[in-house]
Amino acid sequence: MAITTSAPGKLILLGEHAVVFGKPAIALAINRRFRCRVEPSEAMRVNGREIDPAKHPYTRFIIDEQWEGGPLDISMDSEIPSGSGLGSSAALCASLSGALMAMSGGLDLAECARRSFSAELGVQGSASPIDTSAAVSGGGIAVNLEGQDPLWEISRGERSWSIGAIEVPEMTLVVGYTGVNAPTGPLVAKVARYRESNIFARDVIDEIGDLTLEGAKALEAGDLPRLGELMTANHKLLSILGVSCRELDRLVQAALPHSLGAKLTGAGGGGSMVALTESPQQACEAIRRQGGVPFIVRTGEPGVTVDEA
Length: 309
What we know:
Layout: E1 3-14, E2 25-40, E3 45-46, E4 49-50, H1 57-66, E5 72-78, H2 88-103, H3 109-124, H4 130-137, E6 140-143, E7 150-156, E8 159-166, E9 173-177, H5 184-197, H6 199-221, H7 224-240, H8 246-255, E10 261-265, E11 272-276, H9 280-289, E12 293-297, E13 305-308
Parallel strand pairs: 3-5
Antiparallel strand pairs: 1-2, 1-13, 2-5, 2-6, 3-4, 6-8, 7-8, 9-11, 9-12, 10-11
């Protein structure tokens, strides 16, 4: 029996990096997906080739940790650029973990979220479950938001995260991809070192957490101008932490005259930015003129899905 799965990419509206340290964050699944097909085989393969741990670190980790059966033929295809800040590795982990669970008896979303996060953490060394939870759940999620009913909870050592669904008003978002590949792990580790050595960095992370709480209120009230202001403020704080870059700042500044707010999304260092806008075509053109690759994204995307074939 073959199993086909898919999981969405994501963008972080508010709170990246601070969420690693238990602060709140808000993420939205977007309409770019990672697809995976798994079926029994005579040898363990990915897209027709033997698994190479250097090229397939997430796949190798997930197979080693989650699979006790025989060899598998795994086919993967992604609409999410790698290193774009749009959750490509999280969607891979959610899609493959979901497929293996389906082959072993059934998909449990909470367990899939925990397994997917374990894989990202195992490969990256430091991570939060926001990306993988968004890929599993779909829609909009909030992490560590007081008063929410959790979909699931995840803990690692002294840190814990409560993940709940949030209602997202209708809004238009434009993503601008820098084309610069930016692996998540080194940037998360960089912020962790800065936080350990600098009181000011800890204050900035606290401020990002407070700002995200304000953003949750703005979302609930449908106050998009206020949400945009908070997004732009969040970008400035992330720049202070050293995770923005010249390419991201250029795209953010290009989009702002046509937007309610704009910021980097994801780990930073390259990858993508996102703009909340009522003039998406103008924002796209401004991003394109600065060398970015723009696209309009749809939210409300379903999470991990499983089909037997």
